[in-house]
Structure formats: C-alpha cells, structure tokens
C-alpha cells in the first residue's frame, strides 16, 4: 500500500493523469484499479476524471513492485550555475538567456540548458526538490531560439504555469525585440503581414503573401530606433509568435538581420564583426485583460534587460 498526500503543485490534475505521470502502471491496469477501488481518494472510490485538490490523500492498495514508481533523475545538477535573473518572486522567474544556449535539452545537449540551469538554481535555494514533487518541475512558459538572446519566463509552481500558458496563448503578454537589419526601412513604423510555412526537414520557414492550407498568418510590427550607414536598429513587437518569424519576415522584404546565418548574409557580416544574429528579446509587459488568479499582481508590469550588446554598439556609432 502507498499513500500520497496531494500538494499544491499536484492539485488541479485529473486522477488518471496524475498517476500516469508518477508511476509506470499500464493504463488499462490503472483504470481497472480505480474502478475496483484499489486506488482511492480520501478513503473513497473516485472517478477517473476527478480533479485532485490540495490536501487530498490518494491511497494505492497495490504491491510496491507493481507500482513501478518513476525514478527521479537529477541531471540538472550537472548544468552550469551561470544564470542572469531579470526578475524573481515566489511564482515566476524571468531569465536573460544568453545567445548560444538552448532552452530545453535536445539530442545534442542534455545537461546544460536554460531550464536545467533554472532548476539547479532553485534546487540550491531550497525552492525545488524532485523528492517533494510527484509530477511537477519548474518549467518554461515561452521559448526563443538558441542563437537569440533575451527574456524567457519560467514558472515555479503548477498554478503559475497553467495561468501563464493561457495568458501566452491569449496574447496577454507583450514581447518586444531589438534587431539590427540591413538597409533603411521604407517607413519609420509599420505593421507587416504575411503567411509563414514551416519546412521541418530543412528547419526553415518561408513567407508568402497568400494564405494556403500549409501556412499560418503572421503580423510583425516594427519601429525604427536608429539608422547608420546601410543598417537600421529596430524594435519589433511580435503580434503573432511563429518559428523564425522575425528573421524570415524581415528577410522576405529585403532587410535580413545582421549576423543571421539562415536567412541573411553571415559571411559578409562576419567581416563587419557580427558573428551572431543581432536579435534580442529585450522587453516584456504583462498585459492581462482577464483574471490572472495568483498572478494578478503582475498585470501592467514591464521588465527589460539592462543591456543588449549590438544595440549599445550601434547607438554609440549613431
């Protein structure tokens, strides 16, 4: 028999989803155990779809060897401790991701990523311990490319993660980027529209003026901050958030990002001293139009990074 006390980060989940995340029990067997009262909530038979509440007790009348409890791995402890924090409170953390660091583990890098650095940091602070969690780990709300730097939002608890995922989907978090592009823009400010199609095999996107079954509508608003020679520093507001949207959209109108190896003129830019793409997620605003629960205190707050290398370098020349 095993008893599990439901804590804050486990609350709100369906009973079957919670068990699936926490144990290696075959799904068909898990459903049978719930129906036959081998798995109870607060000492009573429960529906599979019951949403767990903080303080509930899940009792499993099952032999330990049958539970197949999922092993907790502490791979995040192998990550670097270098972390630039823009803002932090009991619910969220805003990190300034450096260019070159991936946000999540992939086939080439498993240990040192932005999320593993955040988990390592919170573990050292005593705010996160996998032994105390059944199904939650601090997680990222948004993502940016490896070669793009800037603000990434992390949620410290399950409730904050659920709220922020919804706010991001509903466009209630405004994100602004700095980018350096080739050429002078035709207008000081404009809202570009188009359609983006992703090619998974080439890890590249293509922009079109016509809608199709395979593409998605995009909107990119830009404002010219400064001009010097044949380059322009822009502030970009993402009105939609698609893969490589800024890079591909600007390149499609003849103004590729400086230092962009996929959509730009990297070999030429390297000779000018730009070895990395000049794109940085430098500012965000929590702009909630609906209730945000425990995160209502963030509404209207604005956060930005202290410095962006290419923006400072460019404006000093301007």
Give a quick summary of the entry.
The protein is an alpha+beta fold and 318 residues long. The chain has helices at 15-22, 27-35, 64-67, 114-125, 158-169, 245-252, 266-271, 309-317, and strands spanning 2-5, 39-41, 44-45, 57-60, 85-88, 92-97, 139-140, 149-155, 173-182, 189-199, 204-208, 216-228, 231-238, 279-286, 302-304.
Describe it:
Helix content is 21%, strand content 28%. The chain has 318 residues and is an alpha+beta fold. Strands 5, 6, 7, 8, 9, 10, 11, 12, 13, 14 and 15 form an eleven-stranded mixed sheet that branches. Strand 5 (85-88) and strand 6 form a beta hairpin. The longest helix has 12 residues, at 114-125. It is elongated, with a radius of gyration of 23 Å. The mean pLDDT is 92.
Order of helices and strands: EHHEEEHEEHEEHEEEEEHHEEH
Q: Can you give the helix content as a percent range?
A: 10-25%
Gross morphology = elongated
Based on CA atoms alone, the radius of gyration comes out at 23 Å
Q: Report the strand count.
A: 15
- CA-to-CA gap between the ends? 71 Å
Kindly name the structural category.
alpha+beta
Instruction: Please mark out the parts with pLDDT under 50 across 5 or more consecutive residues, or reply none.
Output: none
Counting DSSP H or I runs of 4 or more residues, the number of helices is 8
Largest sheet: 11 strands, mixed
Average pLDDT rating: 92
Strand content range: 25-35%
